[in-house]
Amino acid sequence: MSINRRTVARSVRALGVASASAALALGLAGNALACDISEFSAEAKCDGDKGVITVTDVDPSGVPATVSVFLQNNGADLKKIGEQVVKGSREGVTITFAENWKPDAEYRVHVKAAGYVDQDIKPNLTTPSTSCKKEEEPPAPSEPPTPSASASTPAEETESPSPTPSDSASTPPADTASNAPSPANDDSNLAETGANSNTGLIAGIAVALVAIGGGAVFFGLRRRGASSDR
Fold it and tell me: pLDDT tens for residues 122-171?
């Protein structure tokens, strides 16, 4: 049974059209799965007391993509933090941007892969409410050290012998000026007490006067008696 050439040609043409359609479908499917914005994610983390922003690409085709990070302020770009190229993998490839972010700050992360994606990661990245660097607590006041027995005052300092008084310091000097009476005071005291050096003379004169007076009285009485006898 012979095969018609026209029939063979039609079969080959149909097979070619089917193959082309399949290749086109596979190409479109490959492009759809090659790189997509959903394969990128961003996160704000801490590296010690420093802040960082990481972007992870899980594109299994490994299409190179440029990632740009911008700090936002009231919905507008305040400054560009940085830009890096990443080639994803099924396990995921992560790139890191050093950024000492503030709490509750907002960042826009843009991904661009030529012919595949040119979009922002939605929603924008918002940093945690707690900063990476912890506030330092003021040091507690230290208590003054308690002096030990060894640090106390030495015995020879606390129990120092009292100085021995010298002869001149122990015996008070004789106050000759205070013991010797002044002439003026001596006269007045002797006059008041009768202790003058002329007391004996005055007493002798008094006795003599008494004796003379007594003799005069005696002789007077005798003369009066003699006159009465006559």
Answer: 999 999 999 998 766 666 666 666 665 555 555 555 555 555 555 544 45
Burial class (CB in 10 A: 0-12, 13-18, 19+), 18: exposed
Q: How far apart are the first and last CA of the chain?
A: 246
CB atoms within 10 A of CB 24: 10
What does each C-alpha distance from 42 to 31, 69, 200, 210, 219 come to in angstroms? 23, 10, 139, 150, 164
Are the C-beta atoms of residues 52 and 97 closer than 8 Å to each other?
Answer: yes
For β-strands 76-87 and 106-113, DSSP reports them as unpaired
CB 18 within 8 A of CB 11: no
Alpha helix locations (H) across 69-113?
none
Whole-number pLDDT of residue 29 = 46
The tokens for 74 are: 């009231």
d(CA 33, CA 45): 29
Answering whether pTM is above 0.70, one says no
Residue 140: in which H helix or E strand, if any?
Answer: none
